[in-house]
Design a protein that fits this description.
Elements lengths: L6 H8 L6 E4 L6 H10 L4 E6 L2 H10 L6 E5 L5 H8 L4 E7 L4 H4 L31 H7 L2 H12 L4 H12 L7 H11 L10 H12 L1 H16 E11 L2 H10 L6 E3 L9 H6 L7 E7 L3
Parallel strand pairs: 1-2, 1-4, 2-3, 4-5
Antiparallel strand pairs: 5-7, 6-7
Helix pairs in contact: 7-8, 7-10, 8-9, 11-12
Family: Belongs to the methyltransferase superfamily. RsmH family.
Protein name: Ribosomal RNA small subunit methyltransferase H
Pfam family, one: Methyltransf_5
């Protein structure tokens, strides 16, 4: 079951009160959105947005008790269009949770999760949130040259053995292209054997997921254009990141020169007790800012 992270901290950062209009730009399974809907009450509105139709189904079920909350299929970089669809002009607060949901990790049909050795992860290596857009990860691995594969794995995964993994992908695909999540995980484990901590393929899957979904591009467009276009002056934005690439973009964007006033100098992180209950919270960082210009 998906458990949202830093819930109390997120709600405090958004400063929600009854009657407010709030956006959850990565509604996921609806965990945060349900808490937001309870906070704004029936006189308010919650607009949930997600690129992944699977997550929208989970969110709709989680929000069934809150008829003032609606869900819309779109990227957070397309918030203006989502609010137009919902009949809303500007919002008082917005949340982005940029992490991967445990419900997505459990979805073998697109290869988000991999379980080496237990028979799972045999589905296609797709990794797209919206399968109507972009190309699947298996196609990227089959077509991109070794230099480009190395760049993707290094830049988006920050894996120390990116070059060796890219070289092995190119060598193997000459006889048999990589088509499933478990095939890729096996390859990575052979090139970069597991040590302590997470599986050695975790960062490789992160890199490919970022690449096929243009995740950083969407974050950049959201910060520069989408959030300023939909938040009222004085509105709050709260963003949860789970790796340094996203956190860096948020930190660089949330400055007064860009029309934002950060609510704190340093990001908020999970307490040890929350990490024990929800290991996903370990890498979470919450940054929040107030919109100071129209």
């Amino acid at each position: 079951m998906h458990r949202p992270v830093l819930v109390r901290e997120v709600l405090a950062a958004m400063a929600l009160t009854p009657g407010m209009i709030a956006i959850d730009g990565t509604v996921g399974a609806g965990g945060h959105a349900a808490k937001m809907a309870a906070a704004v009450g029936p006189t308010g509105r919650v607009i949930g947005v997600d690129r992944d139709p699977l997550m929208l189904r989970h969110a709709a079920a989680a929000l069934e008790s809150f008829p003032w909350a609606t869900v819309h299929q779109a990227s957070h970089s397309e918030l203006r269009a989502a609010l137009d669809e919902a009949g809303v002009d500007r919002a008082d607060a917005a949340l982005l949770d940029l992490g991967l949901s445990s419900d997505q990790l459990a979805d073998d049909s697109r290869g988000f999760g991999f379980r080496v050795g237990d028979g799972r992860g045999g589905g296609p290596l797709d990794l797209r949130f919206d399968v109507r857009q972009g190309r699947p990860a298996a196609e990227l691995l089959a077509d991109d040259d070794e230099t480009e594969l190395t760049r993707i794995l290094t830049e988006y995964g920050e894996h120390p053995r990116s070059a060796a993994i890219a070289a092995e992908i190119v060598r193997r695909r000459a006889s048999r292209p990589i088509r499933t999540a478990v095939e890729l995980a096996d390859l990575v484990e052979q090139v970069a054997p597991a040590g302590s901590g997470s599986h050695p393929a975790t960062r490789i899957f992160q890199a490919l997921r970022i690449a096929v979904n243009d995740e950083l591009g969407h974050v950049e467009r959201t910060l520069a254009d989408a959030l300023p276009a939909v938040l009222k002056p004085g509105g709050r934005a709260a963003i949860l990141t789970f790796h340094s690439l996203e956190d860096r973009l948020v930190k660089q964007a949330f400055v007064e020169a860009n029309g934002w006033r950060p609510t704190a100098k340093k990001p908020t992180t999970a307490t040890p007790s929350e990490v024990r209950l929800n290991p996903r919270a370990r890498s979470a960082k919450l940054r929040a800012a107030t919109r100071i210009t129209a």
